[in-house]
Specification:
The structure is a single chain. This protein has 102 residues and is mainly alpha-helical. It is built from 3 helices and 2 strands; from the N terminus they run ββααα. It has a two-stranded antiparallel ribbon with strand order 1-2.
Length: 102
């Protein structure tokens, strides 16, 4: 079993093999217990576990950004697509909608 490093509250990780800067991550007791359980269950090193978590987190963020960009692109694609003969539509849009749905 791969145990967590001895300094449980202040862990320095070296990401040089990933061409990243060295950083410190602080964990509370509950988080350490969860990490120890994950390490025990997955039989991987602490560093690999943290890197897996990091990759999943950033991948999720990227997927959410792509989804937002798609929604934004679709919304922008209809701008100016429809026209009305009415000149005061921005001020009286509720009035026109209620008339249209009668």
């Amino acid at each position: 079993m791969n145990a967590l490093p001895k300094k449980k509250f202040q862990i320095g990780l070296n990401f040089q093999k990933y061409k990243m800067e060295k950083n410190q991550i602080h964990f509370n007791q509950d988080q350490i217990k969860i990490l120890e359980k994950l390490i025990e269950d997955s039989e991987i090193s602490f560093e690999d576990l943290i890197n897996d978590i990091r990759k999943k987190y950033f991948k999720k963020g990227t997927e959410e950004n792509k989804s937002r960009k798609l929604i934004t692109r679709k919304a922008k694609s209809i701008i100016g697509k429809y026209k009305s003969k009415e000149k005061d539509i921005s001020n009286n849009h509720d009035k026109y909608l209620s008339e249209d749905f009668r």
